Amino acid sequence: MKFEDILYTAQGGVATLTINRAEVRNAVRPRTYEELTAAMHMAADDPTVGVVVLTGAGDKAFCSGGDIRDQQARVPEVGRKHMRRLFALSSVMRMMDKPIIAKVRGFCVGSGNEINLFCDMTIASEDAKFGQTGPRVGSVPIWGACQLLARYVGERKAREMLYTCRQYTAQQALEMGLINEVVKAEDLDATVDALCQDILDKSPQSIRIAKLALNAGSDQEFYGSYFPNAELLASIYGNEENSEGITAFLQKRKPDYRKYRVSRA
Fold first, then answer.
1. Does the pTM exceed 0.85?
2. Does residue 265 surpass a pLDDT of 70?
3. Can you tell me which residues the record assigns to a coiled coil (predicted)?
């Protein structure tokens, strides 16, 4: 397919995928997910590629999450199609027999952080910010964060991140185990390239088996919980409470969820 939302290059054994929507802090819309899926398949099927780097254009964001303008029009039947779209991307990332490295500058939040969770390793610049946004905008991060986040940062911290939607610095993300390394912004490209070269020096068949073995346990958790929870989330798209978060974001105001805890008896 012709790419509009991403850039794809492959040279020297490294495929680089760049979310190219800097004007909206690399927020992802349906086309973006589909292009990322197609590009991941290209990298997986290319025998000359040994490692994949995923990043965002500009210096403001790796990915700021889903494009809220798309979510504004989402209803259950559209949501179910979206859930299948998400599953297609995460499946190729998890099943690809090559390491995927997230190169993060700026915001890595919402579904952007879930994309980060599907990568094998993450190198971030000092100005990076990590977090989830689901309950803030009337949604739920069931596409990876509810299944995988606790494996990286621990159960308690995962609950804090999901329930409060707080954002964390790159150093905090490193200390909690969410990422691998923090470097100065000017050193990010060189650090990621050095990591790629280190991987390319290793046996590809050994890395293939290691990745599949590492994923085996969490695959059962992810696939087992994704489908029922995807249906639950799709079923609330477009209702009043879901719309409150989206509308508030677009109106640049704080959402009022307290009214949904008032007794209706």
1. yes
2. no
3. none
